[in-house]
Amino acid sequence: MAFHSPCPELLAPAGNPVKFQAALLYGADAVYLGGPSLNLRAGADGFGREALSDALVQAHSSNVKIYYCLNAFPQEKDLGLVRTCLELLSDMGDACVDGLIVADPGVFFLARKILPHVPIHVSTQANTGNSAAAAFWRELGATRINLARELALGDIRSLARAVPDLELEMFVHGAMCLALSGRCSLSAYLNARSANKGSCTQPCRFKYRAKAMAVEEQLRPGEILWEVLEDEDYTAFFSPRDLCLVKYLPWIWKNQIRAVKIEGRMRSAAYVALTCDVYRTALDDLGMGRFRPSLYLHELGLALHRPMDSGFFLPGAPSTTARRWDCAGRMTMVGHLIRQEGQEKWMVQVLDRWDAAKPLELVLPGLRRPVVEASEYGLENERGEKLAVAHPGQRVLLSCGHPSCRPGMFVRQDQPERISPTR
């Protein structure tokens, strides 16, 4: 399988420094992050000036780029904060971010004035769905466009051919919004927290209960599209499946998409590690002339909990054409190695219930998953007492002599009793 363009950049979410480290370890080419405000994940911890400076040093020493999110839609009262943020970035001089992600024309205008040397990437929130819109942003000075998630592959191909001198980026994995390119008012209506200012409370993922409801579309008589029965528990029936386009990476590379983006600044560091590992391995495989979609989907299905589908990517109505994959979620991330504490001893942050009588699987880059038998490792508390079970929130000592152990790595266990019900 030969390609005539560079490998797409793997762009990963970094909601805080821990997730940033996970993205670097598991193969991201670039990360996107934000400050405490003015980005569409204001609920993420974000990066203050000192944390951002540290991240830039580490990223650039690893040949990884950092893109800074200013993609909220500010009101007039917010413009002072926009200017302050841009001026703080400007004060960083040459050690600045590698790009700004914006959606609002006003923020774009201010960014060009205050940071004229920093490339601007147009956020998916701008809902760019045609070549004229892409050319509009290019004429203003944008260097990259993140395409609207509502585009099918034919739309993407036509748009890419019409603007060959503009970098295109697209989401390939993660949460899909119920609204058009994320422009949702549910959160503002229910909780006075605007999704368009980064404060979405995700009411589409809340659970609701209807006394009785069955929805049938007029032209499809006899086919129930959604149904909630009177005696059921609360149901997240507004909740979309997660997007998953790993199977279509050959098409994406062939059509010269410059960057593939993983959603998830509000998701866990373990999620960042897993998705980066899968997509990094898939891209590397393609570069070596092989492709193993069943392996990638199997790995995602074992570890994630939300069902996945191909969204709007395939032609036709997604309700009938989307390729769907259910996730078992049985391989649970139970620990995150923080630092080495001595020979073959590691300080570990416990993420989920960890049964020391069960084998352990190391989550290594490249989809390598060596198994450590229960007899080959041990857990201790801070007093040196052996533990049969460790619980979320604890920090424990892991005794393990496997040569692949290193800080930042995750470990997991098979927990079939935790299998998520299919939605």
UniProtKB/TrEMBL annotation:
Alphabetized UniProt keyword annotations: Hydrolase, Protease
The keyword Manganese appears for this protein: no
Any one biological process term the GO annotation gives: proteolysis
Segments crossing the lipid bilayer: none
InterPro entries, per the entry: Peptidase_U32 (IPR001539), RNA/ubiquinone_mod_enzymes (IPR051454)
GO molecular function, one term: peptidase activity
Domain of life of the organism encoding this protein: Bacteria
A Pfam family recorded for this sequence: Peptidase_U32
Signal peptide span: none
The family this protein is said to belong to: Belongs to the peptidase U32 family.
Record-given protein name: Putative protease
Source species: Desulfonatronum thiosulfatophilum
